[in-house]
Structure formats: C-alpha cells, structure tokens
Amino acid sequence: MNVGQPSSWNCDQTEGPKPEIEEHRIDVEISDRVKNWIGSVGNAKEGTPSQNPWPSIPKVPDQMLRGTTSSDFKKFYEPRVISLGPYHHGKPHLHSWENIKPLCAKEFLAASCQRIEDVYKKIERNIEKVRKCYDTNTTIKYDDETLAWMMLMDGCFILQFILSGGGGRDTKVLRKHQIRFVHEDLFLLENQLPFRVLRLILEGARITMMNDRIKEFINIGKPEGTSVSEMPLEKGAHLLDLLRSALLGSGRGGDKKMISKQQQPEQEKQELADDEQEKQEAYAHSCCCRRMKEFLSFQFLFPIHRFVQLSRKKESELNAAGIHFQPSGSSFLTDISFESHFFYGYLKLPYLFIDDFTKSKFLNLVAYEMCPDAPEDYEVTSFLCFLDSLIDHPDDVKELRSKKILYNSLGSDEEVARIFNEITDGLVYLDVCKGVEDDIQKHYNKRVNTWIAQALHDHFSSPWTIMAFIAAVFIILLTGVQTYFAIPGN
After folding, report:
1. DSSP E strand stretches across 368-442
2. Theoretical Cys-Cys bridge with 241: which of 1, 196, 237, 336, CB 3.0 to 4.6 Å?
3. Per-range mean pLDDT, top range of 48-57, 69-78, 405-414
4. Which residues face 346 on adjacent strands?
5. What's the CA gap between 183 and 167, in Å, rounded?
6. What are the start-end ranges of the H helices in 164-202?
7. Rounded mean pLDDT of the chain?
8. What is the 3-state secondary structure (H, E, C) of 281-316?
9. Of the ranges 199-203, 227-231, 476-480, which one carries the lowest mean pLDDT score?
10. Three-state DSSP class for 56?
11. What is the C-alpha to C-alpha distance for residues 301 and 446, in angstroms, rounded to an integer?
C-alpha cells in the first residue's frame, strides 16, 4: 500500500462528476507515526491470529460484572476453598488449601501406578499450549516450570477428588463439610483446568472406568432420570463445559425439543436472507456504506427476540387460557415442548433441582456462553430467560413444584423466584426457544379454544365452582318450569 495516496482497500470506485472545491487546500505532512497507524489499518485483515489447538479458559466477561459488587463476585465467581489454574492462585484465603494438593497428588499417583516425574514431563512438553489457554496478563507471572507444576498439582487434585466419588467415598484428605465447597469450586469459570491436561495425566494411569467416574461426578446432584452415559468427554474443554453438555443432553440420541439458530424455520431464514439482500443493494453504491453494512450485519448473529404476547403471562394466566404444565420426563434443559389439544395445551418442561449452588452454577454457565470461544447456541441462557418469563411470584414457583417440575431444597418459593429474576437480569433474550413460543402463541390466538378453556377454568376448576354451576343451572331450570306453568292455559 502506498501510504501517501488514497487507498481503496478493495472498494468499488464509482465514477461521476466531482464537486468543485473552492476553498484553498493546505498540505499536511503525515508523520512516520501516523503512517504506521495507517499501515496497521490497511493490514488489519491480512494477518490471522494463531489458533491454539486447546480450547481457551476465559475470565468472566465484563458485561456479566456490570452492577456486580465485590462481594457478589467473590460469592458467585471466586473459589471459596480451592484454586485451580492461575487466575486465583496464591490468594490469601486459599493458601491453606495448597497443602492438600500434594496429598491428593500422592494418593492419585499411587492409585494410578505412575511416577510423578513422567507425568510432569508430559505436561511441560505441552506447556505452551497450556499457557495459551489462559489470559496472557495472568500467565506472564509464571515461568514454564511453575505453570507446569501448578497444572500437575491441580490436575491430580481434581482426578483424586473424582476418584473418591466427589466425597461419596472415604477420603483421607477432605472432611465432609469441605466436600460441598470443593464441588462448587470445580464448576466456576475462572477456576478451570484444560481437560487436555487431565487427559495427559490419565494417559498412563492404570485405573479402570475412569471416564465413567468422571461422568458420574458431573451427574452428581441432578434429579433421577438424567443420563450422561453418551456425553463425549473427548470434546470437553473443561469441567464446566462438560457440565453444560450434561445439562443440555449433548451426545444423547433423539432430537432436541428447542429450536436452535441452525434449526430456524425456512420461512424465517428466507426473511433474513431477503432482508440482507435488500441491505446489500441499498448500500452497494459506496465503500463506506458497505463497510457499515458489514458491521451492522452482526445483529443477525445475536438476534434480540421479540417476546410473544403470551410469554410474559405467568402460570395463573396460562392455566386460565387452557395451558397447563407437565414434566418432560428428563432433566435435559433442551427438553421443552408444547402440545395443543383442542382447547387444552400442555407445556412440557424438564426437571430442575434448586439448591444453594444453583445461582452460582447458572451464572458461570451464562458467563461461559458469552465468551468468544464458547458454543454459539446459547441454550442455557435461553432456557433461563424462558423460565424467568414464567416465574415472577412465589405462586408461580408453587405451581411448578406441584407439577413436579421444580424441586426446591431452599425451603422458600420467594427465594427461588428471586434467584431466577436475578440470574436473567440484563440478559438478552435469544431465539433458541422461538419454536415453542410460536406454538404457544398459535394456541392462544385460537379465541374459541381460549374462551372454552377460560369457562372451564372459572366454573370447573374446583368442587365448589362445579357445585355452584350445577346449582345455578338447576335454579334456572326451576325458574323456567315455574314460568311455563304460570302462563294461563298451561
């Protein structure tokens, strides 16, 4: 590129009459510094960033931290007892637990019949890949040996914790009251180890069915009926990613109930394509406008969903419209469906167990989905927003509990409603559940069905309303008979 001349950067130049410029032109000499800036703009697309073969482990995105206090961050995103990886390594409140890691490493290496020197060498040979998994500003503080040793100690601790059944079996290191805290810390976004590190440690391990034990550990605390036996561990980036796969049912047979961005109806795809074509034709006359179009086209990657009219109605209003809730039969978050039967409709939702760990778990999963290298389906975020559209008051939680959809171990329906309202505060609702919502809207738009359902809800929803209805009909009949016989001649 010739720096003193106008550069097109592959723009189409349109010929036409040039406007006359009457004002005097002042020559400005461009300095070497500005020339470097101009050169960096011109070469911006020529280079491609190096791709690390190992998935990255990002920090919590800034947009998740807006409005978050320091105490909230420590409560939901920072480990409470054990640090894994470099992000929280060396913090004072976690220092005492560093002495536990060598004990766990000793137990695991003895159980797997491995020499610690051999395992360390395997990690150090891949230390550059490990380093690229984390934020550079954090790993720059550690040399290769320190970082490799950290991965070895943290990886052996994780595997030994899983080998002991996550506290389900006897362990010589951890006390019972510590096990719950460790389990929560293992699924924080900033407290992850690359799963490739765990696989390196397991390469020479003589432990039978270790993959099954990892799957069982991911499955701890989920309601009965959940299965992760087909979850592909080789595709997992880290434990939090594996937890997400288990919650969504990734790798299992059968079609998913929620419609993802790749499964949008053909009509909607065509509308987007037509809209895009119109924009291309409108902006093609100039390079600047075409660049602006490319920038604006990113809105199609993150479509903001327009709530259907019914999605803001809560359980009581849905029931009045003849829409009732049923458990879908599994705890996979993707098992959401709607069935319409004349004037009745059934919205099927997965089982969901609510405990003290629920808010932290979902906040970290949402933060992970917002990261650039995360899966692009946003299914956990969409499920939470969809559920939040159904839950506003404690009575909504009570209704879902009565249908055996929500299992509340917190003891307070108010607390459950508050948790989901806070998790989804500020999140952008996406189109992953659009197919289900469209089916609900179609059912709701059938006014005759809605009127019949409303009448049944008002007059036959309880024994008292049924008795009142029968009494009213009986009185009307008696009044009619009495009127008939009161007419002269009858």
Report:
1. 406-408
2. 237
3. 405-414
4. 324, 339
5. 9
6. 176-185, 195-202
7. 75
8. HHHCCCHHHHHHHHHHHHHHCCCCCCCCHHHHCCHH
9. 227-231
10. coil
11. 33
Sign of CA dihedral 18, 20, 23, 24: positive
Minimal CA–CA distance to 351: which of 227, 208, 484, 260? 227
Residue 185 has pLDDT above 80, yes or no: yes
Q: Which of 110, 233, 222, 225 is nearest to 160 (CA)?
A: 110
Instruction: List, for residues 453-485, the tens digit of each pLDDT value.
Output: 555 555 555 676 667 767 777 788 888 777 877
Instruction: Name the token pair of 364.
Output: 């970290």
Three-class DSSP category at 427: coil
Q: Which two tokens stand for residue 178?
A: 């510590």
For residues 5 and 10, give the distance between their C-alpha atoms in angstroms, rounded to a whole number. Answer: 14
Question: What distance in Å separates the CA atoms of residue 85 and residue 141, rounded to the nearest whole number?
Answer: 13
Per-residue pLDDT band for 184 (boundaries 50, 70, 90) equals very high
Q: Residue 130 has what pLDDT?
A: 94
Tokens of 321: 């419209």
* Residues in Cβ contact with 184 at an 8 Å cutoff, skipping those fewer than 6 apart: 80, 357, 360, 361
218, 209 contact by CB (below 8 A) = no
Q: How far apart are the first and last CA of the chain?
A: 108
Dihedral of CA 71/72/73/78: which sign? positive
Burial (CB count within 10 angstroms: exposed 0-12, middle 13-18, buried 19+), residue 387:
buried
pLDDT class for 450, splitting at 50, 70, 90? low
Q: Are 80 and 47 in contact (CB under 8 A)?
A: no
> Residue 323: enclosing H or E segment and its boundaries?
strand 323-327
Cβ atoms 248, 379 nearer than 8 A: yes
Using CA atoms of 46, 49, 53, 55 in order, give the dihedral in degrees to the nearest 10: -130
Percentage of the chain exceeding pLDDT 70: 66
- Residue 108: which pLDDT band, with cuts at 50, 70 and 90? very high
Instruction: Please name the residues in contact with 304: beta carbons below 8 A apart, sequence gap of 6 or more.
Output: 428, 429, 430
Residues 6 or more apart whose CB falls under 8 angstroms from that of 97 comprise 81, 82, 83
What tens digit of pLDDT does each residue of 294-306 get?
A: 333 333 333 333 3
Q: How far is CA 162 from CA 78, 259, 450, in A?
A: 21, 34, 52
Specify the 3-state DSSP secondary structure of 346.
Answer: strand
272 Cβ contact list (under 8 Å, min separation 6):
300
Grouping H, G, I as helix, E, B as strand and the rest as coil, residue 407 is strand
| Cα distance between residue 362 and residue 458, in whole Å | 38
- Does 207 score more than 50 pLDDT? yes
Residue 8, phi-psi category: left (phi > 0), alpha (psi -120 to 50), beta (remainder): alpha
C-beta separation of 419 from 431 below 8 A: no
23-37, 87-101, 192-206: which range is least confident on average? 23-37
